[in-house]
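Hi, here's the filled form for the chain we discussed.

Project: internal
Contact: R.S.
Residues: 398
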Amino acid sequence: MLPSCARLGIIFLLLLLAGCARAPTPLPANRQGVHLLLDDGRNAWPQTLWATHLDHAREVIGVDGYVTELVRLDDLDPVRWQHFMDLCAERDLIPILRLATTFEREKNWWNAPEPDHTGRYHDIAAQYATFVAALRWPTSNHYIVVGNEPNHGNEWSGHPDPPAYARFLIDVADALHAADPAAHVLNAGLDPYTPHSGTLPLADGMFYIDAETFLDEMYAAHPDVFERLDLWSSHPYPGGPMSAAPWEQVFGREMLNGATNPRHLEPPPGVVNRGVNGYEWELFKLSTYGAPPLPVMITETGWRHAESSDPAATDTGQALPDAATVAMYLDLALHGNEGRYPELPEEGWQPWLSDPRVVAVTPFAFNGHPAEWGHTNWLILDAAGTVQSRYPMVDVLR
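And the returned structure, exactly as it came back:
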């Protein structure tokens, strides 16, 4: 009898082959993009700056490049966001909207959505759907991400709830599809580095759930949840996290304070969940639920750099690479090596732009407030949002 890991590998291969029989998703001519932070939920640049920031994005990512942008539940103003859509149209950019809830500053978390009296999320879903349908999109496909990293306590009122997020995703996806036939709905990307905090919170006072347990509990509560999706949103950040080279990839999970997952499956050999190809593990997990292969949009990824226009920026870390190294890592992650960096490996990762499963890559983040995102930004900004210069990552995409 075959070992369990070998049986899983065969099942995974058969499911991938079955997926190949489906009509493949046409790859766009340009799969490059950036994750904007015109509004990060806590800080927002004045609308007078949006055009300049988008001019820089257009110069960096080119015609039909993708731009991901957050929109809060308490900011569903079609007039305000139509301005964003019009700016995208003028620059031939493809918007990806990430629907967020509201941020609770005193508790430093994103509020979990409020269910209706029935326990469903029809009221909030209707608000999102009405907003999305009211916009004049510059593209034929309307890409919408529902939420963000819900396996984090700080994204769900301090305590993740996989069944609740699954119900929320179903209700919002159904409302979006009903209101806008062009809606292409994506899940909230998960954080693959998050441990399961078990019965105790982490140091920030919040609970967390590892990505596998979160997906397993979503599926156990609502087995049809993944049928609502048109594409898969992934956050395959490099190791470190956010500092390691593209070839440094592993499978890992941490179960703390008595946490268990009886549904855990060891992945097939070579499938990793932590690194630039972490979406391979997510697709493997989806296949074990019987879900069809979904095109992948990498809506967040990227490296933090040692430099910052604000020396006190809060997104700092230990042993961060300099911006020139980050640019090299990004180049390798996108295009591969092919002898261009003779001193560096040629193998150990699948370049995103040579992976037919990946239809878009929008690294995080392009233009956040430097007090919070100084080590992450691609644009060198002052505190007022004026562009001073750009980091060398921008040259990789041009």
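Let me know if anything looks off before we file it.
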